[in-house]
């Protein structure tokens, strides 16, 4: 330290002034461990040549503490802008980004609103998903019409692509007009040959959402939540899965929907399922309601996120979902480079060996 202070022009000038009894009285030259070192307010002045090494040494030695904790621990040292240097170093530590979970706002980048459907025709767009597993490896396929939120559920054994294709054909295609689009996640039950062959044979275009981004299929996720609530509310029917799912589907079809301002059944049949009272839908009003709901949901989610603008070429970390890692495993991987950006909040990452498309919900700046 003494050698580096004497070789640093700024420290050397201050030491010369002190030896002449001049300069800022906040600087002193007390002995420390038998060596006379330059101090500022009783803290050792660290010359520029040692600052990065000292910050890195403390960060490694203390097993990657947070920025404030490390700064407070290094309180015996000082240099201009020390707190900012420590904070910037910790922020850029890749090992910290891979290993640490943080509380508070940690989602970066505002999400664009989900685009409204480009068609107002009922049954053009259907969302599908699986919920489960239930006892004895049973799953439930949910199929939901986008305009009315009309729901069909069917129990199937396992989650193979063939079983899922058969369930969708029985529960939906055999009952309702052929959809133009089917929205689904990238699970093998939907991307498998059998399900894709069914869509191809019916001239239905599939619209897979980005991997591990369930919010993109939020219609199904909300229904799954309601189904699980019904299952928990009727524990006496836990051994009769098909019965309780029929009850759950009936409750959703007959219940008031806050966005639609009516139940799905009232919109589809023009009357209430219980009282048989006639219902006349204002489709122009409903279209505006759906659009306003999209904006409100988008604003609500963005209030929980940190404003950040990603750009092509940025280095980012990719979060690993909790269900895919053990408690001691890293929580993210990377850094990866953003190769392409899309208007819907998706990005294409260059992982070195391949390209990976994901949503900004799963990344954060490196």
TrEMBL record:
<feature type="domain" description="Integrase catalytic">
    <location>
        <begin position="111"/>
        <end position="272"/>
    </location>
</feature>
<dbReference type="InterPro" id="IPR050951">
    <property type="entry name" value="Retrovirus_Pol_polyprotein"/>
</dbReference>
<protein>
    <recommendedName>
        <fullName>Integrase catalytic domain-containing protein</fullName>
    </recommendedName>
</protein>
<dbReference type="InterPro" id="IPR041588">
    <property type="entry name" value="Integrase_H2C2"/>
</dbReference>
<dbReference type="InterPro" id="IPR001584">
    <property type="entry name" value="Integrase_cat-core"/>
</dbReference>
<dbReference type="GO" id="GO:0003676">
    <property type="term" value="F:nucleic acid binding"/>
</dbReference>
<dbReference type="InterPro" id="IPR012337">
    <property type="entry name" value="RNaseH-like_sf"/>
</dbReference>
<dbReference type="Pfam" id="PF17921">
    <property type="entry name" value="Integrase_H2C2"/>
</dbReference>
<dbReference type="InterPro" id="IPR036397">
    <property type="entry name" value="RNaseH_sf"/>
</dbReference>
<dbReference type="GO" id="GO:0015074">
    <property type="term" value="P:DNA integration"/>
</dbReference>
């Amino acid at each position: 330290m003494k050698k580096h202070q004497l070789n640093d022009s700024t420290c050397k000038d201050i030491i010369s002034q002190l030896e002449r009894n001049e300069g800022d009285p906040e600087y002193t030259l007390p002995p420390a461990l038998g060596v006379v070192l330059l101090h500022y307010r009783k803290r050792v002045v660290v010359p520029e040549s040692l600052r990065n090494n000292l910050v890195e040494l403390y960060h490694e030695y203390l097993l990657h503490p947070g920025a404030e904790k490390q700064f407070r621990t290094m309180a015996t040292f000082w240099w201009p802008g020390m707190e900012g240097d420590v904070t910037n170093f910790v922020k850029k530590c890749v090992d910290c980004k891979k290993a640490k979970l943080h509380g508070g706002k940690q989602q970066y980048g505002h999400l664009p609103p989900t685009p409204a459907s480009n068609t107002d025709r009922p049954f053009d767009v259907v969302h599908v998903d699986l919920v489960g597993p239930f006892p004895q490896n049973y799953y439930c396929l949910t199929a939901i019409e986008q305009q009315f939120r009309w729901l069909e559920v069917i129990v199937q054994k396992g989650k193979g692509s063939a079983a899922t294709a058969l369930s969708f054909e029985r529960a939906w295609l055999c009952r309702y007009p052929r959809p133009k689009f089917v929205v689904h996640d990238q699970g093998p039950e939907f991307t498998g040959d059998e399900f894709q062959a069914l869509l191809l044979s019916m001239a239905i275009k599939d619209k897979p959402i980005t991997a591990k981004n369930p919010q993109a299929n939020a219609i199904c996720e909300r229904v799954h939540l309601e189904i699980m609530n019904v299952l928990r509310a009727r524990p006496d029917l836990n051994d009769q899965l098909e019965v309780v799912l029929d009850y759950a589907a009936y409750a959703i079809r007959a219940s008031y929907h806050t966005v639609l301002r009516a139940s799905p059944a009232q919109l589809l049949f023009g009357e209430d399922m219980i009282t048989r009272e006639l219902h006349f839908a204002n489709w122009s009003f409903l279209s505006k309601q759906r659009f306003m709901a999209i904006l409100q949901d988008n604003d609500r989610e963005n209030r929980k996120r940190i404003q950040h603008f990603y750009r092509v070429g940025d280095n980012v970390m990719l979060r690993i979902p909790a269900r895919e890692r053990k408690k001691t495993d890293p929580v993210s991987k990377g850094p990866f480079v953003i190769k392409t950006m899309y208007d819907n909040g998706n990005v294409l990452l260059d992982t070195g060996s391949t390209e990976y498309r994901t949503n900004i919900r799963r990344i954060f700046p490196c």
